[in-house]
């Protein structure tokens, strides 16, 4: 039965908020787990749940072939693994970093005899171990290595493999998080507009959420235009019309006593693109202005 199938043993370095959440799911699923953390106290609760606590990062790495690291940043990964023998290890790095850091870390691991997968976590700790939360991790690196450990890696949250290039998981991670910050910026401006009025922010919130969801599918249209190179394809609200509306947004902000500093840069790009004679296009041309 599935309960009697041997579960892959693994090592986890880093027991911060995310590492601890990951550890709990592997333990709950019956995986033998060796852990190490710079501050040992964080490992105590996990030991009570069955984790083997190693005395050092090197000892933890020596304990298992599959080694997962979830540390603060790339510098801490370097520091923690400096004294460990990585020969023959399958190193999975779930620490957030840049694509360049991931590629360099992959070369670094290979030079030390390890195979390397990079991961970008699209979840916050409470989403780990909760399949319906929609969380997942982007993985990139050798596909064969991902397939070998897919089942174990899928225990804490969903998995999405995005390619052999070790930098692609980080690139997808940062791309999605960048879009998220743009959304937060827009929502912040919207809340600021009503801040001094007799409007309950709690009444605006569901309207904002519904509107963002309604507008989100526009990204598919943008992708099609980028693919074809024709930014007039299927245009509904052209750039000329949208730029004509900018004073309405800026004047409303001024009248409400709200700084335009979040929206201003985007409007500037729209105006620049229009000045290039692209009034019949969608706003997709702004992307070309961003790519240096
Ligand atoms: N938490 C979140 O919401 C996000 C969700 C998306 C992914 N991120 C990334 O996950 C990495 C770990 O994040 P975390 O939430 O676990 O972070 P912390 O709770 O701050 O724990 C950090 C761990 O790193 C250890 N550490 C830091 N510096 C060093 C070092 N120089 N040497 C050894 N270990 C180090 C720290 O150890 P300690 O402070 O307990 O001794 C924690 O184990 C991260 O890349 C997020 O961007 C999380």
TrEMBL record:
Keywords, alphabetical: Oxidoreductase
Taxonomy, superkingdom: Bacteria
Family: Belongs to the HIBADH-related family.
Residues in 6-phosphogluconate dehydrogenase NADP-binding domain copies: 11-153
Protein name, as recorded: NAD(P)-dependent oxidoreductase
InterPro entries, sorted: 6-PGluconate_DH-like_C_sf, 6PGD_dom2, 6PGDH_NADP-bd, HIBADH-related, HIBADH-related_NP60_sf, NAD(P)-bd_dom_sf, RedAm-like_C
Pfam families reported for this sequence: NAD_binding_2, RedAm-like_C
Cytoplasm as UniProt keyword: no
Entry annotated with the keyword Oxidoreductase: yes
Residue ranges annotated for the NADPH-dependent reductive aminase-like C-terminal domain, each copy included: 165-290
């Amino acid at each position: 039965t599935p309960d009697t199938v041997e579960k892959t043993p693994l090592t986890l370095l880093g027991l911060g908020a995310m590492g601890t959440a990951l550890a709990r799911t592997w333990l709950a699923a019956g995986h033998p787990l060796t852990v190490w953390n710079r501050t040992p106290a964080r490992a105590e609760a996990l030991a009570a749940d069955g984790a083997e606590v190693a005395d050092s990062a090197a000892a933890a790495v020596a304990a298992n072939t599959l080694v997962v690291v979830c540390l603060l940043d790339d510098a801490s990964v370097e520091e923690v693994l400096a004294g460990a023998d990585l020969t023959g290890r399958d190193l999975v790095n779930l620490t957030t970093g840049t694509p360049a850091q991931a590629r360099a870390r992959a070369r670094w691991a290979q030079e030390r005899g390890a195979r390397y997968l990079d991961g970008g976590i699209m979840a916050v700790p409470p989403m780990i171990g909760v399949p319906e939360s929609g969380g997942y991790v982007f993985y990139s690196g050798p596909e064969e290595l991902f397939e070998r450990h897919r089942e174990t890696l899928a225990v804490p949250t969903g998995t999405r493999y995005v390619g052999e290039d070790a930098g692609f998981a980080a690139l997808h991670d940062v791309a999605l998080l960048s879009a998220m910050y743009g959304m937060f910026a827009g929502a912040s401006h919207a809340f600021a507009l009503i801040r001094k009025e007799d409007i309950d922010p709690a009444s605006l919130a569901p309207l904002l959420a519904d509107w963002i969801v309604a507008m989100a599918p526009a990204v598919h249209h943008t992708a099609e235009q980028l693919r074809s190179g024709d930014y007039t394809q299927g245009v509904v609200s052209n750039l000329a019309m949208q730029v004509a509306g900018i004073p309405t947004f800026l004047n409303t902000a001024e009248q409400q006593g709200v700084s335009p500093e979040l929206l201003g840069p985007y409007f500037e790009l729209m105006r620049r693109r229009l000045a290039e004679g692209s009034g019949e296009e969608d706003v997709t041309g702004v992307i070309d202005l961003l790519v240096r």
